[in-house]
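Incident log entry.

Two folding requests arrived from the same account within the same minute. Monitoring flagged them as a possible duplicate submission, but the sequences differ. Recording both here for audit purposes.

Request one:
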Amino acid sequence: MDMHHLTPLFSPQSIVIFAGDPETAEASNAQTAHARLLVRQLTDGGYAGPVRFLDINMRGSLADLAQSRVDLAIIALPGTQLTAALEVAGRIQCKAALIVSSGVNAMQAAELHAIARLHGIHLLGPNCLGFQRPKAGINASVLGAMAKPGSLSLVSQSGALTASMLDWAEKNSVGFASVVSLGANTAVDLAEVLDYLATDRETLSILVYMEGIRDARRFMSALRAAATAKPVIVMKSGRQPAGSRAALTHSGAIVGSDEVFDAALRRAGAVRVRTFAQLFSAAKCLASRYKPVGRRLAVITNGGGPGVLAADWASDLGLTLGTLAPDAADALQSQLPALATLQGLIDLSEEADASHYRAALNTCAADETIDGILVILSPKPELDVNAIAQTLAELQPSISKPLITCWMGDAQVVEARGILSAASIPTFRTPEAAVDAFSNIAAFYRNQQLLLQTPPPLTHLAQPDVEGARILIESVLAERRKVLTEMESKALLAAFHIPLTKTILARSATEAILIANQLGYPVALKIDSPDISHKSDVRGVALNVSNAASVRDIWQDMMTTVGRLRPDACINGVTIQNMSGKPEGRELYIGVTTDVPFGPVISFGAGGTMIELIADRAVELPPLNQFLAQHLIDRVRSAETLGAWRGLPPADRESLEQILLRVSEMVCALPQLREMDINPVIVDAAGALVVDARIVIDQELPRTHKYGHLAILPYPSDFEQEWPMRNGDHYTVRPIRPDDAEMIQNFVRELSPNSRYMRFISSMRELPSKMLARFTLIDYDREMALIAVHRVRTSDPDGSIRETEQMIGVSRYVTNPDLHSCEFSLAIADAFGGQGLGSRMMLSIMDFARNKGLSQIEGLVLSKNTVMLKLMHSLGFTVKPFAEDPDFRLCTKLL
């Protein structure tokens, strides 16, 4: 209901400029180069609102200053005058400020940020080049001429790249809704701008160039909100170590592992590109307003070679070559030259002209088995390339699928490319670049499909012994150690019910024999030392030891050899453990590392002694659910061995998923956990078993939130309450989970038509899949949904009692753009009205919002919904007419 808190910055109703006196500055050369350019750009941009010029000496009467209250203050002054100008902006109650400058050091930037916070100003800058809003006529930048209006928004942490993109866009007829240049030390950061663009109606797609982030939690929350609403394409520098160091010094931001960054983008539903060429390709397609589609790309060409290049590159990128349905192919064949072929590629042959391209394009546009169309043209003697381009331009408005072109060559096709660009049809010089462009659209579609999946119900796992795990960690840290021994590592895993081989430490050869006899042969012997990471490197592992004499000899030899090779290592003894008993098992690896800034990261892949050489792994950010665990397993090459493999029966994948879920529980519950290697995990048809583990811990860092070490807030399992009903029954109130999708769908189906209308202002009988995913796959950091669950006991025909769960109510809040208030919604099952359920659900969601630090809750209620309005009055809400729609009442309450 409220406008975004950055609206005064990017859509100001009035502007005040601090850039020196424009009437005397040119003569006295008092204005900086930035100031002169900015004043000229803003004046020529066509901004319709009032613009006033002020100076830092506050000349004029108090009445004049009082009338200077505006939305946005633009400051382009020398560094020594920035602090005074921002103070003046605060005193005249500006809501936002832009400082266009360079060379401001971190100390002065911190001082400017403090002034902005004191006056409640949203500050973009310092050290930034400004922003453009072409449709509003605002060119508050030193980036060059105003961009053309469009639906694409660009956010960049590099001013040079921003200027280059604008120059490219002008030549390629690409327009922008917003262009924002973020520099080092800016107060309004990338996450806030993404949050604004997610709600900006003029923005239909977003391009991001970034060098690093400071707050992973805020970035992930904002990116997911933006990518859920519209396509987001991200390019990030600093992929290699040297690049990371450069990014650190250039932007003042922390850059994490490139592999982890990819995992974060997948989790948020955004798409990554790695080169400027791919970024420009993405911009072309997104500027054409193409919606996300599938992966089936049809290729229409008049030459076999370019078509084959496109098909090969499509295959390399994981795309599918779209082929016509048999009936459609037969109908088209009669309209094409005799040499045309339609098997795989749609090769029109060298005799093709505009009419043949028209027929092929119309057929592909109507075929439901095709998601996108790539049209390739190779210039031939006497071929009218302009006529074919004009044909595509005429058909473009009637085609609902992405249409991408590749007019090969140069001199002969320049005019044709102009025709295509003028019709907003993306055109490229090479088949590979064109396929890349479609791949970006398809990747967004694929990531959105993953984001909108509703996972199956989770297996109810036994509660871990978190307190015991914390006691173990504290005892190790008290000894000023960070590396757990194998025994301690396995004890920590056991606290989370991870299946392990039975392991006992032997401090003498005699102990080793007694333990081996008790466990039963064959056994494995491993050196136990917190200082030795890889036991096999120092001959500290012996497998398949079959008798007591061998145990004695190996124990003695191992202690001697390891002591000689690593005299500095502290050796606790030798662990004795059963062999896994899984001769048909597959050796896999599960690991945990701590990334800066994203925090804990879970990795999975092929295990064993050649883990570094094989380099088969995938990573994912916690928390995991069963669907994410399954997807993590599927992304590695070794996943193929988990099925029936070379005469072996299929492995028990579910047991592997359970271990991944348990590891996710560990990293969420134990912020001291820094690194972990579980290698190998052996899995066969009977289940999975952990054979060896190594864990590194450290002191917990100061944090303000229970899960402050995580980039993604996990399911708040500790908020679960049981409440009585007036009829003596009970129900449970808990946060919603992704696997509640089926239960919430049944809840909506069973609502009466009147109740459905009061809640959704619609008569729909069930929730569409996208809405269902939106309601269940929530970002717990910015919203919350609490559901009331009633357990129903029924008897089966055989007389057995079955207990099922039924959702009987839901309350929800979503944080408003001001980040201080939230909007609520409430729905109660018709059969459970009058039980006090509505009051309890509202009080619970208000408690949650209050604990989150929000100060006000508000919501719209239909004027005819007397029951809901009565409830609002009883809870102390202020109810008043809603100015924008008389059919609603606005209900507000301070928390």
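Request two (distinct sequence, not a duplicate):
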Amino acid sequence: MILSSVLASVGGCDFAQSVCGAHTPGDVILGILLPCHQKVNAIHERIRPETFHCSDFDPQSFVRSLATIHEIEKINAAGFLPGVRLGYLMCDTCSYASKALQNVVHMLAVNGSLTAACNYTDFRPGIKIILGAQYSEESIAVARLLNVYMVPLLSSTSSSPELSDKLRYPGFIRTIPSDIHQTKALAKLMSHYHWNWVGVVYGDDDYGKAAFDSFLRDAGANNVCLAYQEVVPHYLDHENNEQRIQQVAQQIRSSKAQVVLLILKAELVELLFKEMIRTSTTRTWIASDIWSRSSALAQMDGINRVGDILGFAFVAGKSESFDNYLRNLSATPGGYNHFIEEYKNLRFNCLSECFSSEPPSYCPSPDLLKIKSGNACDLKDPQEQNDDYLVTALDTSETFLHRVAVWATANALKKLLKCNNSSCSGDINFAPWELLRELKEVEFTYDNLNVHFDKNGDSINGYDLVLWERSGQQRRFRKIGTYQVLNEEIEFDGEDFTWYSTGNITAPRSRCSESCTGGSEKKILNVTCCYNCTQCGEGMYSEDPDPNNCKTCPSGTWSLKGWDHCEPRSESYLGWSEPHPIVVIAASALGILLLLVTLIIFLVYRDSPAIKKAELKLSCVMKVGMAASFVSVLCFLGKPSVHLCRARQVVYAMGFTLCVSCILVKAYRTFLAFVPLDHITSKPLHRLYRPSWIVSVLTSVQGIICLLWMIFDSPDIDDTLPSQQSMEKIFQCTEGETYIGFGIMLGYMGLLVLVCFLLAFKGRKVPQENSETGYIIFSMLMYLFVWVCFIPVYITRNEEGTIVQASAILVSSYGIIFCHFLPKCYEALRGSNSGPQPIRLRNNTTRGSRSSSF
């Protein structure tokens, strides 16, 4: 009863005229709940439930309401509902939810009151459906109230995902998709242009917060990160609005994010753009559906200086009949429209004093004065005037879905009222919930658009991707693609366009980090889109830009650090055609040639004193050993095999041991012949002098060493992987796993050489013409020096061990040739006939002396 009395008192005033500014009677009345003004004045000062005072006439929203009215008139004129005339009651929400609720209470009032009841099944208000509201903040508030009465609320602009919840908003339907689809489209757009570092500014209303939360989820799924997120009060007259806009502008300027998503009312975007223009700040702006077709923004001063603007807008379409209606604007006969009157006063009333430096307080704002016709002061009655300003200054195509909403209502009514071609037999005093039931099932085609609603009451007709391209000092809207809700894909038109920020068709960059090139991977920092680029390690590669991880090279291939591909490792060994091996081959061939030449000289001059002193047979055995050493060097070249690895060491060991054994015989002979010995030691030492046996035994010992080496720790091919920093797979021989056999072999030869050196050094004072001790000492010292240097180099530089050992063999072999063979050849060729006689051993026994012959 209290509620009834309150509403009655409200009904006592001229509410329809003061609150709802347009009305036309009819058999079925449609409510229109759209803002024709941008704000309620001094809302933060409101402490009593007094009248709301609105200001700042909104031409764009005004045109939306006119599109709804025009389509109602068009349906009536076409006789779509035979015998039934549609009427309307339009109320101005002034973009404020509480004002919208006040309007709804009036719309639903019956006889000036709204009776409280427990069951509203038979509730039959004059308004059967409400078309609106514009903003989600308003629709959410209104839809909650309408839930009580199950009056349908059909919106063409409120896109908050919250309104898809049919448990909380069972009576809400809309001709647009939910913002969950728009935010997916926005994230995919950013991903398409490789923008992974973006800023977001959104309003603190239900629309802004819900859209931001939805975008946050979709951005993460598309690898888009937020450089910052800023919230702005959605109420235009908020006392901190100016300060907050400046703070947001500073954040935009200080961030390196070049792309900014604005989920704001057009009026707030205008305030932000003015600050951007003032500070000459250029960015790429992504528009949400609420302002993506705002003509007021497209025509604001300096709009071309803010940068690129693009975004997703609801499906749009021109109507020639509606444009003609705007050119001949008047209230519907039998009704009134105060909003048309207000517009014509703004457009055609003179008010010349408002253009002075100090205009009176009743004058419109400077932005609204732009509406004023240039010849307004020459006209008599503003209400009788018309022109094409609304058609040329505003984008009338964006009213398309408002017209669709009216036709959706008409099609539902046609079924509910059981209309045929001549009449409608249904009861026009139906309950609103009956119309809601039919509206959810409606399906029709309007201007090639298939219209129906899903289970959440949402339309799934997708979005247009709109680019704001320059048109003189203003911008115009150009469709460059579409987003299909069903397949969740953006389809771009074929024609490229020029970005203002880059000056070409290449999209501007907005990334937290520079793109990683091939051969590197991302090292994520504190945010997934922020990273350092690190080169791929050895055996890893990346061929695509910005990989999260490098890939492992396939089996049989390898890569170096920072490579973007893998290759098979090349085989590296001492090839026959390389410079160093060619020198080794030439040295070996020369050594064998020298041996052959000296052999010939030795045979030709075998009767000369020099050759006789050198012992021809012993020298020939030495030459055989030396030839084996030179041949073994050739086994160090070419691609190694197991047999070559074994043969080269055995041939060298046996050949050089044979040669050194012969030299030891010579040194031992000189020692016995010229070094004074006491009676006790002389006899046993002389008995040991058996040249053939000495050479045979010493060489056999080396043979046994090599045999055991081959059996227990045989040389093999080194098949271990090379260094990770190398693309060469080095083929080389390894001298067994423990190198013990190799060490014993070299150690044994070194022992023989040392014995030779000691015996020769002991007999160094022997007359030179009867001794070779000087040559023996020098050649053995050379061997010891070469091999003492070889061992540490071989150990520390194993990859060069092959060529080092081959060189050591050559040097030590040449030392013997130059010390033992060439001097004898020189003496033989010189033709000396009076030389020393072959050395004979002294014998302290009574028996005759024994020849030293081999």
